[in-house]
Amino acid sequence: MLDAFSRAVVSADSSTACVSDISALRDFVANGNRRLDAVNAIASNASCMVSDAVAGMICENQGLIQAGGNCYPNRRMAACLRDAEIVLRYVTYALLAGDASVLDDRCLNGLKETYAALGVPTTSTVRAVQIMKAQAAAHIKDQPSEERAGDKLRKMGTPVVEDRCASLVSEASGYFDRVISALS
Question: Sites of the modification N4-methylasparagine (predicted)?
Fold first, then answer.
């Protein structure tokens, strides 16, 4: 996994030169607190995000929890929740580092083939990832759905300026899109 600093060093080293793109590193540091806030917003709501995404996927396809469905019996449901949590965790790692290599190498590499071998329906998995993507954007903007969350609502409480979060929402969405693309 490469963060902005490691990427700058590797790039400079490959051309046998000194690090010259200091402005990109300055931007990475300047946006560091917002990046940390975004990761914290996702991580502190991860459990609810995962369970809501899987529940949403099941609501749209009730056959998953019927006998013979891919979320039946409880053991398979637990595996589904575990896999969604792993995907979300690696998306937050990528968002923290500003680099998708950890997501690609440790989560997505061979995921589609593994799911095919296990008979996991990728369309349902893709739908759960799409739901988590929408939730992550809402949490990064600090605009989670109050009417649905009820007493479990966790807002970060930091004032959010829309244009300052747009780049992080876009970046996080890109990581979720990588997962969707890897499964499709």
Answer: 70
Q: Is 165 annotated as ligand-binding?
A: no
Express each pLDDT in 52-110 by its tens digit: 999 999 999 998 988 888 888 999 999 999 999 999 999 999 999 888 999 999 999 99
Q: Confirm or deny that 70 is annotated as ligand binding.
A: yes
To the question of whether residue 85 is assigned a binding role by annotation, the answer is yes
Q: Which fold has domain 32-183?
A: Globin-like (1.10.490)
Q: Determine if residue 37 is labeled as part of a ligand binding site.
A: yes
Asked if residue 86 belongs to a known ligand binding site, the reply is yes
Largest pairwise CA distance in the chain:
62
Residue 80 assigned ligand-binding role: yes
Rg (CA), the chain: 18
The CATH 1.10.490.20 portion of the chain extends over 32-183
**What's the predicted TM-score (pTM) here?**
0.82
CA–CA gap between residue 59 and residue 125 (Å, rounded): 13
Per-residue model confidence as pLDDT tens digits over 151-175: 666 665 555 555 668 889 999 999 9
Residue 140 assigned to a binding site: no
